[in-house]
Amino acid sequence: MEIISNRSNPKIKELRLLKQSKIRRQTGLCLVEGIWHFIEAVEAWRRGGYATLVSVFYSPQLLTSELARKIIDEVQQQGVNCYPITAELFSSVAEKEHPQGVIAVVRPKTILLEDLNANQQDWLVGLVEPQDPGNVGSILRTMDAVGAKGLLLIDGGVEAFHPEVIRASMGAVFWIPVVRTAFQELINWAAMNNYWIYGSSSHGRKEIKSMITYQKPCILLLGSERQGLSQPQRSACHELIYLPMQGRISSLNLAVAAGVMLYDMLAKFSQENNQE
Amino acid sequence: MEIISNRSNPKIKELRLLKQSKIRRQTGLCLVEGIWHFIEAVEAWRRGGYATLVSVFYSPQLLTSELARKIIDEVQQQGVNCYPITAELFSSVAEKEHPQGVIAVVRPKTILLEDLNANQQDWLVGLVEPQDPGNVGSILRTMDAVGAKGLLLIDGGVEAFHPEVIRASMGAVFWIPVVRTAFQELINWAAMNNYWIYGSSSHGRKEIKSMITYQKPCILLLGSERQGLSQPQRSACHELIYLPMQGRISSLNLAVAAGVMLYDMLAKFSQENNQE
Q1: How many Cβ atoms are within 10 Å of B136's Cβ, its own excluded?
Q2: pLDDT, one tens digit for every residue, chain B (276 residues)
Q3: Is A247's CB within 8 Å of B147's CB?
Q4: Considering the domain boundaries, does residue B149 fall inside one?
Q5: Using CB atoms, which residue from A134, A175, A245 is nearest to B145?
Q6: Is residue A5 a part of any domain in this protein?
Q7: Do the chains contact at B243 and A263, CB–CB below 8 Å?
Q8: Which DSSP string corresponds to B24-58?
Q9: Domain limits at B142?
Q10: Residues with Cβ within 8 Å of residue B108, at least 6 apart in sequence
Q11: Inter-chain CB proximity A263 and B260 less than 8 Å
């Protein structure tokens, strides 16, 4: 196959357009850059994760990983379009300063609330209007570690497949169902499916250490970086938990707060399992 | 005072140079941008924090905060040089897209290991070669929340007063002593001062939930984002603790891992206090 070197090649133009959030939303596609994330996306596609591999762009000169090259051969045989491009063109397209030579176009699976099941997805995290893709990615990474089963992105905020979410999640975004929903819709659905909603809020009445156990199915709900949960959002929670804050600053980084809460839940779920 | 509008004004040149890490290191100065962080830096300077206010640049047109304007008047009367500059010039210097109209030049206090005291700074966090200033800032923010008493930056890594550390710390960097040190020097000092070193490592033998209590004075030691603690670094710890990881990814984001550990320590220190 001929190596693409022309910046105005239509495939390269399409690739470049996917750097825009608007185009990602319109097409339902996203970009996955780097060897690790490419391999995770292919794994997810093959083994029932939440991504479909659409096409691959690679620079034979830059891509030194034997494993990545082998995977490109395999997916090509499975019918995925794989385009070799020159190192120079690749570097002009890549986000990374020292690109590893592979970018995949991936179609994340669209998941709706109705696709979730209170028996299987019995532990969810809900983020209201999160603004920082690094936070959303870190939270997905923590959810992978503790075994939480789904992420709800509520009332907008960052896209789930923003390049920085993919990067910070270490690929967990391909393995954890992510649902976009509106707050009231979520609350109705949660009530119908008997989810217990734990809100994280500095206005909470229960300090985290007083939580003896958590019930399932449940949702851990966190507000945006700037505002936390609003009063109406707090009233929709069954319990409001706060973390002790002894210093000058009134809140934690969102991903840190979620991490502390999720590990507390994990510890207390496990205790319960041990007692059964 | 005349409003500076000229890009080649020597004061503006100096200000711009401080965007370079090399110049910050040479001069021992750093930049603090935005109203919140400016006020925190002034507070720290006034009330025994770890920052001295050197000079202030502000745009009378952009700076709408009454409080910030009042503080600028006060510090000017105390002898701090405050330079009004045009909105256009300010925007060309500011990092933020929508600048709030104030940047301060601040001299962080240099703190050495010898300045720390095992009675007062009885709970430290040590980071070996951290690479991400956002992580270091978030960890300082968590340290403020739990009441940890000092940060050790070991064997290089990001500067403590990188603009992104200041931002992510929400100003906590002005209130918590930060010491740069080398690993072996730290270990010797810790031994002499009877610090107990808790290492966070996936190679740890103790799962966090088996930790009944933590002793003081102590240091929570974490490795770099990429590598964690090396084998020799792990052997220098008195106890190695791990967080359960149930998913595909073998580690957490550094700030999340530190947050979970620090809140566990806080909970178990408090229990001990209650029992006394």
Answers
A1: 28
A2: 789 999 999 999 999 999 999 999 999 999 999 999 999 999 999 999 999 999 999 999 999 999 999 999 999 999 999 999 999 999 999 988 889 999 999 999 999 999 999 999 999 999 999 999 999 999 999 999 999 999 999 999 999 999 999 999 999 999 999 999 999 999 999 999 999 999 999 999 999 999 999 999 999 999 999 999 999 999 999 999 999 999 999 999 999 999 999 999 999 997 766 554
A3: yes
A4: yes
A5: A245
A6: no
A7: yes
A8: HHHHT-EEEESHHHHHHHHHHHHTT-SEEEEEEEE
A9: 113-275
A10: B28, B30, B50, B51, B160, B161, B173, B174, B178
A11: yes
Q: Is the pTM of this model over 0.90?
A: yes
Report d(CA A140, CA A127) in Å as an integer. Answer: 11
Name residue, tokens 């999640």. Answer: A169
CATH number for the domain harbouring residue B150: 3.40.1280.10
Region for residue B238 given its phi and psi (left: phi exceeds 0; alpha: psi -120 to 50; beta: otherwise): alpha
Give A22 to chain B, closest Cα distance, Å. Answer: 21
Of the three residues B87, B108, B129, the one that is the final residue of a domain is B108
**Shortest CA distance from B167: residue in chain A:** A253
